[in-house]
Amino acid sequence: MIEAEGLTKFYGPLPAIRDVSFKVEKGEVVGFLGPNGAGKSTTIRVLTCYMPPTSGTARVDGLDCFEQSLAVRSRIGYLPENVPLYGEQTVRGFLRFAAGAKGVAGKKVEAEVRRVTGTCGLESSSHRIIGHLSKGFRQRVGLAQALLNNPSVLVLDEPTIGLDPTQIIEIRRLIQGLREDHTILLSSHVLPEVAQICQRVLIINKGQIIATDTPANLTSQLQKSAQIQVEIKGETRELASALERLNGVQKVTSAGPDSRKLIVETDRSGDLR
Ligand code: ADP
Question: Three-class SS of residue 206?
Answer without folding.
Answer: coil
